[in-house]
Amino acid sequence: MTTNCLSFKKNAAAALQDDELQSVLGRFCDARHQNRRDGVSRLPEFGRISDQAVEMKNHALAHLDFYLETFEEKVHEAGGIVHWARTGAEACAIVDDICQSMGARKLVKGKSMVTEEIGLNNHLTQRGIQILETDLGEYIVQLRGETPSHIIAPALHVSETQVAETFRQKHSHLDPERSLEDPASMVREARLVLREHFLAADVGITGANFLVAETGSAVIVTNEGNADLSQTLPNTHIVITGIDKVVPTLKDAATLLRLLPRSVTGQESAVYTTLATGPRRKKDLDGPDHFHVVLVDNGRSKALGTPFQDILRCIRCSACMNHCPVYGCISGHAYGWIYPGPMGQVLTPLLLGLKNAVHHPNASTLCGKCREVCPLKIPLPDMLRSFREMLFRQKLDAPSTRLGLKLWAAVATRPRLYTRLAGWGTMLLRPISKLLNCVGSGRTLPVPEGRTFQQLWKKYE
Amino acid sequence: MNKAKDAILNRIRTGLGRGRLSADAQRSLVEGLAAPADNIVPGRVQLSGPDLIREFIRMTTGEATTVSRVESDEDVPKSVAVFLREHGLPDSVVIAPEETVSHLPWEESGIHVRPGRAEKDDLVSVTPGFAGIAETGCFMLVSGPNHPYTLNFLPENHIVVLKRNRIVPTPEEAFDLLRKEFGPGNMPRTALMVSGPSRSADIGTSLQFGAHGPRRLHCILVGEQ
Asked: pTM of the predicted model, to two decimals?
């Protein structure tokens, strides 16, 4: 698991200079805003369903131990095995053990952010196991040796031309003269190449959008159907997911399913919503003989009982990043780890430690849009504020920031001094702005009125 | 790995500021699982009769599924033959080995059928649908000895035969059917809800069909119109 969080400023500056990325990002975010708006407007009950979901998830988290154990029992009844992993390393070791015991050489994998989080691909590759991403975006990112730049659209940063180049380079067994001029031909090619891998794989790995305690099912949502092939053709199916994903009943899953695709693409439902429960039954003609679920903590339980508990409600819909003015300018790689945007700015310091993500709490205008579009109403800006306080208390922010904050606090806690200085400042800003506007820098500064709010209040009271 | 399990559960309990739940508390949670409160569901699908069917068709065709309607089971092979002709497909199909599909008069329509799981080169599959969900336009397809799951994914063309009386307003009601027919808390290995053909927008954010699963999803709706 490599992270690049501390280079946030450098990464962000580079992203801002990348014209191609800027144009892709702009189009992507605009489309997603429209999609979500349309989707939400088709469901007048959205707000109430969202409230119900918040209440349900809060209940599930308050009784997380009970629902996880119930889930485990049900999986066991269905013939599956549940594994518990405290850390990413433990989770990797569990998967590794399963693979070794099956003599597995080739794995196919549906999209799973948790496997990115724990660095599973690297771990297994080093152990001599071939692991193939099957979500088209993830596959492209894997071929290019990159990481996802968005939790739902992993290859958002890769242009059509770049995909064609990558396919030509990596699918070297195919005719070099073949046409790859449009997305349709590239999708066709990926389908053919990946289909062979599906048929040859020993183990299929998927994530889970939700776990259902009532039935021991893992709910997996895709539009491509890759997760279904991953969990049907190989002889072993391993689900890897976070302990925060469990909900009590199928009905509760239905509530979240009304919110999840709608918040991403505006869809009423994803193309495929699959409830996977246990291995193939006795007389089934297909399906895996073995079914494992790996429940990963990796720092999640630390959030319980803290101001950050609500982040465990997150259903990874990506609405917060799609609507974040900062994400919209710098894209996912700038954040330096796999969870970008507002949810990532909270999850990253939680899971990696604040000292490894010191820029994350400040990479926000706190405009509140993320909270507004979050279907689980997670108070992301409040959490970022709490992290900012922690940065200051733990002396993790820059000396200049600390000095500035201390000076400001010294003034702000002395009302008379504050009023006087603010008056001078406002007076001075007027000629300065005017002067700069005359010199001209391509941008026009707003010219202050010249008096502070308090001065005006006194005058007109 | 029980050590890991205990450690995680302990951390959870410490975080929540409590110990293990009391027997009473656990009992009431178990009761809650057996009798969950009603969900808020969209008013749009509080429909029945022909209105419900119309809404289902509207939603599923909106997801690029095609629909044809027939009066009775015996008409299904003819409808499949029309689909095969329209798309220039060969007249051999792989079908679910379930009576409602396998006992149909296929030969009368000149279609060769092979009941069983799908193989790599199968082009067309025909399977019965467990339920239709009007809210989302989804078909619920369950796996079982007579419902191989590969039929839903390997062939490029997938035809679902759905009885009109299996259309319900919401996913909750489809789950109720599962509970009723499989027993409470029991599930088939897979219960799939599918709304249309497989798709991806991962290349150049342009929507393409047939990413991994079927390129075409066709529904034959059976029942008086």
From this structure: 0.95
